[in-house]
Design goal:
By secondary structure, this protein is mostly helical. The protein has four helices and no strands. It has one domain. Helix 1 packs parallel to helix 3 and helix 3 runs antiparallel to helix 4.
Length: 94
C-alpha cells in the first residue's frame, strides 16, 4: 500500500481502505474472482478514489503473478488516478 498517498486520510479512512484491500487480495488468492466494482459500491464515497487506485494496483499485480498481461484498458484506466489524485470518486447507484 502506498502510505504516502494516503497521508491526508483519517485513521478510520485508512483502516477502511486497508481492510477492503486485504479482503480483496485474500479473495483473489483463494481463487475467488473478486470485483473492484463490488468493493467500491460498499465503500464510503469519500474514499472510493483512493480505494480504486489501490484495488487496481492489487489486481494488476495479482494478474501479473499469474502470467497475465494487463489490457490496454486497465493501463489507461490506472493512469488518471495515479497522475491526478483529485479525480472525482466513482458514483454508485443504490
Amino acid at each position: 500500500m502506498s502510505f504516502q498517498r494516503f497521508a491526508q486520510l483519517s485513521d478510520e479512512q485508512f483502516a477502511t481502505i486497508h481492510a477492503a484491500c486485504e479482503a480483496f487480495e485474500e479473495a483473489l488468492e483463494i481463487s475467488q474472482r473478486s470485483s473492484i466494482e463490488l468493493v467500491l459500491r460498499s465503500a464510503p464515497l469519500d474514499i472510493q478514489s483512493d480505494l480504486f487506485s489501490e484495488l487496481l494496483s492489487i489486481e494488476c499485480e495479482w494478474r501479473s503473478r499469474r502470467g497475465e498481461r494487463p489490457t490496454e484498458g486497465i493501463r489507461v484506466l490506472a493512469t488518471p488516478y495515479e497522475s491526478h489524485p483529485d479525480t472525482p470518486p466513482v458514483r454508485t447507484t443504490s
